Amino acid sequence: MSYTPTRSDFDHYMAPNYSPQKVIPVRGEGSHLWDQEGHEYIDFAGGIAVNSLGHCHPVLVDALKAQADKLWHLSNVYTNEPALKLAKSLVERTFADKVFMCSSGGEANEAALKLARRYAHDRFGEHKDKIISFRQSFHGRTFFTVSVGGQPKYSQGFGPVPGGILHAEFNDLDSVRALVGDDTCAIMVEPMQGEGGIVPATPEFLEGLRELCDEHQALLIFDEVQTGVGRTGKFFAYMHYGVTPDILTSAKSLGGGFPVGAMLTTDKVAPSLAIGTHGSTYGGNALASAVALAAIEHIDTPEVLEGVQKRHELFREHLESINRKYGVFREIRGMGLLIGAQMAPEYEGRAKDILPLAIEEGLMALIAGPNVLRMAPSLVIPEADIHEGMARLERAIAKLVATA
């Protein structure tokens, strides 16, 4: 029976935890999408910083097709070549010695937090279990990660949250000093807060966290789920700062659209994740690993990474030009192709109102909370698409101003 789904089918069949836009994209190529009616859109959303090479990039499509004819899934009772190649490639590109593969950023962060506590337990005893995170941070939707995240709205109504979790102020080292102690097992931080409003860490802040962790024999965890794999113009954001974590998590751009996650750590820390302590049914899946390997090998090149910074400047120029005309933004910030435009006081809380207006003009964008317009496009988005997309955004902003 022929069946074409509609947006109302979402409300009928799907759990109501999302509220997607009215259009249903059915095809994508590069930084363009087309919906069921054939309307075309420029994609500044990038699947929430996932589609690092846009839609259906030939490098990723070829990797997927080649692996699809060989091997899909084994489970971790066995290993497979694509997973080992991916792990080796990640180790060779980073500070890490060991990799744990999984299927999402939430899984990667769950593994990082469990490893940090297990490591402290093994080395120092049960008392060393406190985790310090930051207000407005976001680390995933498992109950552990959402509790470590600094946005209580995501954990409210689900019962008692896990204990031993403390929250300091982002970019405020004194607030961390007030909480850290010999019972601290880890400090978890995003080098740039994503869901919290696209706020980069200062170099002094991350350097200070590293020093505090060393002083108190705690582990420093960098959540690079959103900032990693070229998003900021370096392969990982920690490389901008010269601050090396003990554990790093990755997902989103890692698979270029295929669900995959990874936790990276050192030979010093990894042994605490001993046989039977943790696992992931789909972790190291051959299809996911093959696509992720193709993605990182294409992204971690001077051409792509240097191009990210050039595109950042182009986005910023356009946003500043729009703001000079309409005065809707208070601040434009971010790194690489993770960009946030905070709304001006007179447009407080109206970032979400821009999204449907942008859809009307043929543009897909994001928000980071109610007050920040967010853009996380393909790392290789053509400059012509940036110019056209920004023209569409300006028309959407004009509509917003007209209704103010």
TrEMBL record:
Q: Which GO terms describe its biological process?
A: L-arginine biosynthetic process
Which CDD domains does the UniProt record give?
A: OAT_like (cd00610)
Q: Where in the cell is it found?
A: Cytoplasm
Pathway assignment reads:
Amino-acid biosynthesis; L-arginine biosynthesis; N(2)-acetyl-L-ornithine from L-glutamate: step 4/4
Requisite cofactors? pyridoxal 5'-phosphate
Q: Quote additional remarks.
A: May also have succinyldiaminopimelate aminotransferase activity, thus carrying out the corresponding step in lysine biosynthesis.
HAMAP family per the record? ArgD_aminotrans_3
Q: Assembly state and interactors? A: Homodimer.
Q: What is this protein called?
A: Acetylornithine aminotransferase
Q: Which organism is it from?
A: Litchfieldella anticariensis (strain DSM 16096 / CECT 5854 / CIP 108499 / LMG 22089 / FP35)
